[in-house]
Design goal:
Length: 319
């Protein structure tokens, strides 16, 4: 039996006699052989069926939903997802990007942590499909999927203003993140337009996890004039805000709107700015597949809508 015949059997190719196929398969099983699909794809001149996804934080359910949407869409095209977390560290993101490219992934989907992604221009020019999700990437033209951060923030502020609030605090993530900048800028603009003076004094950043958010909200609540309402600018900030309000006398009278829906928010009665994170991931994967099929297609930006979902916490009047 020739090496070529064995290769055809192991690659699932047709036109091999049944007896020969069975002998090859029996020998492979006895040797513990496992086909290297990545090497096989590359040997045939094709791209790997692996798609890399660099997420911001694997422990955050938002990124889990993103990954779920990506994986579901890729599965429809016979592709598989390889996920790594940057922990919102630009240097780690750059390192992971290099490692995934070295592994010859067929496409790359990134939630940008860094400010400059010009280093990827060469990879894009060489034909690697690159899609950025949740935040745009500076320094390169790439397909992008984001949500309407400004529209969602403005709607949340309008909701709290409509319920009589003027002392509204904003508790957000790390200030270098594009999503923080979009949401905080729109928060301040909306309050200025409503005639609220010195709104900047209610803005806090650094709420990357619930513990940090809790500390920031406790500081706000201890002020001589504490806020009567809080816009928590991500799901972790919302959880930390709720912890701080639980530990503060009268905290249950402070109105809360959280950006990002989260598990049990409906049962807890938390008003949120919601959107479909799974669809966000699905659209990112869809763009990666389309770019792989047509490298010269026009770069596309997808903006998904947001909406305020009233559940009780954002409808409390000021006290």
């Amino acid at each position: 039996m020739s090496l070529k015949t064995a290769s055809r059997v192991l690659n699932g190719e047709p036109n091999v006699a049944t007896a020969t196929r069975e002998r090859v398969q029996d020998a492979a099983a006895s040797l513990g052989f496992r086909r290297n699909a990545v090497a096989a794809d590359l040997a045939r001149g094709g791209l790997s069926r692996l798609v890399g996804f660099i997420t911001g934080d694997l422990a955050n359910e938002f990124y889990s939903a993103l990954a779920s949407g990506i994986e579901r869409e890729l599965r429809e095209h016979g592709l598989q997802l390889l996920t790594a977390s940057s922990d919102e560290d630009p240097e780690r993101e750059a390192s992971l990007t290099g490692e995934l490219i070295e592994r010859r992934v067929g496409a790359l989907i990134v939630t940008p942590a860094g400010a400059d992604h010009s280093a990827l221009r060469g990879e894009i020019a060489a034909g690697l499909p690159v899609v950025v999700v949740d935040r745009p990437a500076a320094g390169m033209d790439a397909d992008t999927v984001v949500i309407d951060n400004r529209g969602g923030t403005r709607a949340a502020v309008a909701h709290l203003l409509a319920h009589g609030h003027r002392r509204i605090a904003f508790v957000g993530d790390e200030p270098h993140l594009w999503t923080y900048q979009e949401r905080s800028d729109e928060f301040l603009a909306a309050l200025r337009e409503a005639g609220v003076a010195d709104a900047e004094r209610w803005v806090r950043s650094g709420a990357h996890d619930a513990a940090a958010a809790r500390d920031l909200v406790l500081e706000l609540l201890a002020a001589p004039e504490p806020p009567t309402a809080i816009l928590a600018a991500n799901n972790r900030a919302t959880v930390g805000t709720l912890q701080a309000l639980r530990d503060t006398p009268g905290g249950d009278q402070v109105a809360v709107v959280g950006f990002d829906d989260f598990e049990l928010a409906d049962l807890l009665g938390i008003t949120v700015v919601a959107y479909d994170a799974v669809e966000m991931g699905r659209r990112a994967a869809e763009l990666a597949v389309a770019r792989s099929a047509d490298p010269d297609r026009t770069v596309e930006q997808v903006v998904l809508p947001t909406r305020v979902v009233p559940r009780g916490s954002g409808e409390r009047p000021p006290r």
